[in-house]
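Worked problem 6 (solution included).
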Amino acid sequence: MARSCKWLPLTVVLTTLSIPANSEPLEYFGKPVRNVPISGAVKAGKLVFVSGAPAFGPGGKLAVGDFPAQMTQVMENLTANLKAAGAGWGRVLKTTVYMMRASDFSEMNRIYSSYFQEGKFPARTTLVVSGLPHPDFLLEIECEAVLD
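Solution. The predicted structure is:
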């Protein structure tokens, strides 16, 4: 017996950021990491967009295979980029977490939550991915914030 399939209309809602053409110029923060052509953060008016932060620590060191160490380093790198742009964790609206292993989800939540006031967490999307730009990355996090 043939089954009929009804297609429902798909409504796509696009949110656009209205930044007037004559607004303040964009401000760029941070230096490219390992010759990757990105800024650590970009400020557009009162909005701050922070690039995905890898777990490279001082001197370019990476805690290979150690998820808690990489997670903490990523959060500290994001903290520095937010601060450079004039924001902090209390002004973060949204984060996106890219993880290599679903088994690290509980540990990620434990460390992540320590950076926010209890009950005042930003919106978040968490994805388990099959790869990240460096073979030893266990995660990467990006975020958006708004200034006071």
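Discussion: Confidence is low (pLDDT under 50) at residues 1-18.
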